[in-house]
Write a structure and sequence with these properties.
- Helices cover 74% and strands 0% of the residues.
- It is an all-alpha fold.
- Residues 1-18 have a biased composition (Polar residues).
- Residues 1-40 are annotated as: Disordered.
């Protein structure tokens, strides 16, 4: 390009989006990892609560079975006593 005296040329470059620096990328990665750990922890807590509920049901059923067995033994004992007398 030939310039005439008094004319100036300016070149403009298309604006490029500034690339994220290493620190920003590291911060984003750490945030994503934190969120993933948090989500996993919440899932583990929910699973533990679910298992606790199942165990509580099992324990309740076991106690009820023991009580029923004790009642049946008492009834048998009463029947046996009545047969004896």
């Amino acid at each position: 390009m030939i310039q005439e005296q008094g004319e100036s040329t300016t070149t403009t470059r298309p604006q490029q989006q500034p690339s994220k620096d290493k620190a920003e990328l590291q911060a984003e990665l750490e945030e994503e990892e934190r969120l993933a750990r948090e989500k996993e922890e919440e899932a583990n807590i929910a699973l533990i609560e679910s298992w606790d509920n199942v165990q509580a049901t099992i324990d309740g059923d076991y106690q009820m079975a023991e009580q029923l067995q004790a009642q049946e033994q008492e009834e048998l004992t009463i029947e046996e006593k009545s047969k004896l007398f």
